[in-house]
Design a protein that fits this description.
The complex is a heterodimer of chains A (205) and B (195). Helix content of chain A is 43%, strand content 21%. By secondary structure, chain A is of the alpha+beta class. In chain A, helix 5 links the parallel strand 5 and strand 6 (138-143). Chain B is mainly α and 195 residues long. Chain B has one domain (11-184). The longest helix of chain B has 28 residues, at 157-184. The two termini of chain B are 13 Å apart. In chain B, 36% of the residues are buried. The chains are: A alpha+beta (205), B mainly alpha (195). The interface between A and B is medium-sized, with 30 and 28 residues.
Chain lengths: 205, 195
């Protein structure tokens, strides 16, 4: 009697447990918050807030003004000694690889600083030069206000924490924004080919 | 880990409350290692110590559904799996309702079922459970130590690797303890001394 009841209880607990684990991992697909963010964006494209950005050339832009073209967006800070510098040269290479659609104003690259109090137009311009900027189609910018930074990080799902060495550790990635101004995909920062393919596919449709 | 000392049934609620204090919460969530290996286990212990406060009738009637402590240990294992997901640690820091779920769920779904089930678990059930605990410590510890990327957006890679090492150390410690008990401890297959 007690054995069959225990079996029944265990089966119910097992079923409930599997259901909870499935829900907590988006159907066993996302075990980390970074994967979860990518799955969520792919399945539910996200409209971006119209937060003003100040560019390295001193102009003010926002995501509404940038609509009509595909955007590849990454988050950086210019003092970064680790992979941000590589992020920069990857963007410079993307300028070459996407030179055609960039010239047609159908694609643009956008680097947003996580460290707006340090990264003024001057620092951003120096960062682009250092990374080998080809001069066209790559905008570096900082949020015009601290509230803007917070809203942007929330919209993109970016988390930055102190790395204990005066810098930041952040979930770097290439964020793909479609011509309607929606965040539609997030790809690895170290494989720009993936973001490039995504955009080329979008342009071909 | 035992029931709280005789006559001190308030220890469980006290520990629970103390862990919920903002200062304790922030201190124990400051690193991934403290979060996973100190805060969550302490929450489970707080739940274990709630044992003397549980209504006696309910515990007794539930015992028929928990022969050998199997259902309870299964419940505790599944609930523990949720809190081993890197994503759950991040979510607890970012979403107040997930943090709340952790503070309620860990004591009630891990600590309480363990306290209620462990005394009824025999040699074999305890052995299987402990072997699984050891295997999990090694598996997860190995993964955390070797993963080249961060699994929690809110914690550093060095922290993740330290957690991995700590889990490997815990796996070794439990294995040694178990081996010692099996070789030199007094174990009665049926009776009071069971692993």
């Amino acid at each position: 009697m007690s054995a069959s009841r225990t079996l029944l209880a265990s089966l119910l607990i097992l079923a409930a447990g599997i259901a909870v684990l499935a829900a907590a991992t988006d159907g066993f697909r996302a075990f980390t918050s970074e994967t979860a963010r990518r799955v969520a964006v792919r399945e539910h494209p996200r409209a971006l807030p119209p937060m003003p950005l100040q560019t390295a050339r001193g102009r003010t832009i926002d995501f509404i003004g940038l609509r009509g073209r595909w955007l590849l967006v990454d988050f950086i800070y210019t003092r970064c000694m680790a992979y941000c510098s590589v992020q920069g040269s990857e963007f410079a290479r993307l300028q070459d690889r996407l030179a055609g659609p960039i010239a047609d104003e159908r694609v643009a690259l956008l680097s947003i600083s996580l460290d707006p109090s340090h990264d003024g137009p001057e620092q951003l311009a120096a960062y682009q030069r250092r990374s080998g900027d080809r001069g066209v189609g790559w905008i570096a910018a900082r949020p015009a206000s601290p509230a803007g930074l917070e809203a942007l990080m929330r919209a993109f799902g970016v988390t930055a924490i102190s790395d204990g060495l005066g810098g930041y550790a952040h979930n770097a990635a290439i964020n793909v924004v479609d011509p309607r101004g929606r965040l539609v995909a997030i790809t690895d920062w170290y494989s720009p080919g993936e973001a490039e393919r995504y955009v080329l596919q979008g342009l071909a449709q | 880990m035992t029931v709280p000392p005789r006559g001190k049934p308030w220890l469980g609620p006290m520990l629970w409350l103390a862990l919920a204090l903002p200062a304790a919460r922030h201190a124990l969530e400051a690193t991934m290692t403290l979060h996973m290996l100190v805060q969550i286990p302490l929450l489970a212990i707080a739940g274990w110590w709630l044992r003397p406060l549980l209504p006696r009738g309910a515990v007794k009637s539930l015992a028929a559904w928990n022969r050998g402590g199997i259902s309870g240990l299964l419940l505790a294992s599944l609930a523990a799996m949720v809190w081993m997901l890197p994503r759950a640690l991040d979510a607890a820091l970012e979403e107040p309702w997930i943090e709340m779920a952790k503070f309620i769920g860990v004591p009630l779904l891990i600590g309480v079922p363990l306290a209620v089930s462990w005394p009824h678990a025999g040699f074999v059930v305890r052995g299987v459970f402990l072997a699984e605990v050891i295997a999990t410590a090694f598996r997860l510890g190995w993964l955390f130590l070797l993963a080249p990327q961060r699994w929690c957006s809110n914690y550093l890679l060095s922290d993740q690797q330290r957690l991995g090492k700590a889990m490997l150390a815990i796996g070794v410690a439990i294995s040694l303890l178990l081996a010692w008990k099996l070789m030199w401890g007094r174990i009665d297959a049926d009776g009071t001394r069971r692993l």
